[in-house]
Amino acid sequence: MSKIFKLLFIIITLTLAIPLIFITFSWFFDSGDSFSYLIEQNLLFLYVKNSLIIAFSSSILALFIGVISAYLISSTDIFCKNILRWILILPIAIPSYVAAIIYDELFSSFGPIQNFIRDFTNLEYGQYWFIDISSIGGAIFILAITLYPYIYLLSFNAFKTQSKQSIESAKLLGLSNFEIFYRLRLLMARPMIFVGVFLVMMESLADFGVVSLFGISSFTTAIYRSWNDMYDPVAAAQISSILLIFVIIILFLEKYSRKKSKYYNFDQYCANNEIVKLPKYLNIISFIFCLLIVFLGFILPFAIIIYWSLGQLEIFFDQYVVDALINSVILGLFVAMISVIIGLLIAFIMRYNNKNIIFSILTFIASSGYAIPGSVVAVSILLLLIKLQNNIFDGNILLIGTIFAIIWACSFRFLTISYNNISSSLNNITPIMDDAAKILGRSKFSILTKLHIPAIRQILLISFLLIFVDTIKELPATLLLRPFNFNSLAIRTYELANDELIQYSAPTALLMIVISLLPIWFINKYFLMKK
Amino acid sequence: MFKLLAIIITLLSFQALANEVNLYSAQKEYLIRPILNKFEKNTGIKVNMVTIDKSALISRLKNEGKNTPADLVLTVDIGNIYQLKKNNLLQSVNSKIIKKQIPKYLRDPENMWFGLTMSFRAIFYNKDKVAAGEIANYEDLSDQKWRNSLLIRSSSNIYNQSLVASFLAHNGEEKTKKWLKSLVANMARSPQGGDSSQIKSLAAGEGKIAVANSYYFGKLTLDKGKIQNKLVKDKVKIILPNQDNRGAHVNIRGGGVTKYAKNKENAIKLLEFLASDEAQSFFANINFEYPVSKNIAIPDSIKKWGNNLKSDQINLEKIAKEQERAIYLMDKAGWR
């Protein structure tokens, strides 16, 4: 059994890793001079600086929002907890670039707010102070407000499953609620919180939609330029490989700072149910804080999209839109299922082979897709498939332009989510349990199905739904690798928004959001509500 | 589910369905699909289409080589079209119909690419701040009186690249360098947003003049519809540039038949249809672009910008050849 597992592991990770291997080895290909051009023009340093500022600041802001809201909802008696609990997830349904477009329309010099100020005060543009949304600060805000739910969901789960005993012991030692939160619970939740922060950081590093709209020169601008202006996909791959260096540094820092300390939940079936009572003023402040977050991240953009969609409702019955909707949903389900199964398999095998260096490297490569811009992943797969198709099958089999290619690209990108989620929660299960099962003569397969899967089923579900939502929003891989006459909601939305017909892209954006709401409702009903 | 499977199977099995044509298009589906449907109805030839970003289209076609399924490609901007030719991805098409419909400067001397619609890079001004006649040529954009008042998008925008390339083709490198330096100094803000955003920011008073493609202005000043913007209608005026000398810089959407087209006949039929009066008048009315065919009356919605646009008649290929140097000069001048 275990040999088959290992073989499967190697085949799967290698297959997934190929695009990345291609990107890494692109340094050996002959490419144009666009890379040296960027260095020569002193552009690369500026790009790197902006990207790092945006990625770090937005993940810190998201961390702050996500952890505080998760703590308030999971462990205190905050007002309207039952409603806040699930509406706090909603911003994840709004694609970052859609939020950016909407905030730009509202807050820019020509937006309704500044218009009103000018009409009301008779001042001209420039004579009054106003927030500049098209700035690095604006990009950080947009990314944090739309991405924090990753951190919220994962830390919520961590807080919920923390053991009662540890917290009771801390109480007996005379720690205050704040100290318990700060010194104990935060520390215990740290691995899961880190996964969330990691995802947000990766996504902001790879973001192109927001920064390009706001005219910020970032790392992805360099990738886009070397491809779009200089027709040089290999240089684009080279520049992306630098992103990987950042990923390695971040992962290393986390591992190093955690050193050898491990956190096990010995009694996760005896989770902590105790509720901290907040003083009234603090309760009101907390309530307003959560509501404000949801307002900025979901209610406001959603309301604008509905407003724009009014008057063009007939689009929902357009055959092309219905087809796009069906395609999006089926693709989302497929990708989510495959990514979760592979993530589980890899995490399970790594649990027993984490000292094996080759396995660790393969896992790292296969699970770092989230940090690579989707368009680069897609183009790597595209070039690879074309090579296969031309050289091995001599053009008799078409590999690109198939659903298979899209699923490959998406699974590679989103494995980061499922693998990291699953492996951190597996790490919460003490190996003593595995040993006990082994002594009882259980096979590894039955340990996986009878012990691990039931223990982490909530994380499996969360991963599935997060990936589903991400696939619905996914654009570059679907755009580049799809068959003839195949559309998705994201593509339709993008094509209209890209031609600056933003209001006309609203109905399909609305559909995308509504479809993403279904799994969120599901998460709430079957996971968050559970005692 | 079955539909997906069916797609996979048909794509995996060798494509030999008779009466069809496969199209790679960098022109968006909402713009092109209605007219393709008309073609299908007229001829019974099925059009299989996939839209791709312009650079991806070139990479994909280049790498697919002789096994490409694409018969016809449609893209935007002369720079992209020229890349297709330069990479040897197109074939020469000898069609009397097309030659009759499309003027010489909007098609390839070797008949590999054809312009199908045309628009010009316009200058705009805010009428509260600028008097009519204060600016007339692209050359004036560098005038010192516009310090900190020009709105224009980033240098990675291909329409700006083509504009600079055309300036370069006409005025030479020294003049272009100087022009670019002052133009960058004249910018009201660091470049951001798309063409529409330049026009809207102009209306809001963020600058005094702006540069954008003509059709964006058409959409923003439509009488009805979601995009229509009252502020733009009230405050912004459009100028047809360089009318007293070489004419306004124009750009095209267009395409050609791929070198390895398997349905060549059908691809030519589709291209001829897109150049026909029926398709030309459709394009002119849907997207505020100028028809390339002389037979079609310019729609009133465009006519009101100024009578009879005088367009720069330099063959577009000359502009495309300058694009690489133009990008370099833009970067050198600090145009972000």
What does this structure look like?
The complex is a heterodimer of chains A (531) and B (336). Chain A is built from 23 helices and no strands. Chain A is mostly helical. Chain A has 2 domains: 1-30 and 311-531, MetI-like fold, CATH 1.10.3720.10; 32-309, MetI-like fold (Orthogonal Bundle), CATH 1.10.3720. Chain A starts with a helix and ends with a helix. The mean pLDDT of chain A is 84. By secondary structure, chain B is α/β, with parallel strands linked by helices. Chain B contains 14 helices and 9 strands. In chain B, strands 1, 2, 3, 4, 5, 6, 7, 8 and 9 form a 9-stranded mixed β-sheet that branches. In chain B, α2 links the parallel β1 (20-25) and β2. Chain B is globular and about 60 Å long. The relative contact order of chain B is 0.19. Classes of the chains: A mainly alpha (531), B alpha/beta (336). At the A-B interface, α6, α11, α14, α16 and α22 of A face α1, α2, β2, α3 and α7 of B.
Fold blueprint:
The complex is a heterodimer of chains A (531) and B (336).
Chain A: H1 2-25, H2 34-40, H3 43-75, H4 81-87, H5 96-107, H6 112-121, H7 136-160, H8 164-172, H9 177-205, H10 209-213, H11 219-228, H12 233-258, H13 280-309, H14 319-353, H15 357-366, H16 374-392, H17 403-427, H18 431-439, H19 444-455, H20 457-473, H21 476-481, H22 489-498, H23 506-528
Chain B: H1 2-12, E1 20-25, H2 29-43, E2 46-51, H3 54-64, E3 72-76, H4 78-86, H5 96-101, E4 114-126, E5 150-151, H6 158-186, H7 195-204, E6 209-213, H8 214-220, H9 230-235, E7 236-239, E8 250-257, H10 264-275, H11 277-287, E9 290-291, H12 300-303, H13 316-321, H14 323-332
Parallel strand pairs in B: 1-2, 1-3, 5-6
Antiparallel strand pairs in B: 3-8, 4-6, 4-7, 4-8, 4-9
Helix pairs in contact in B: 6-14
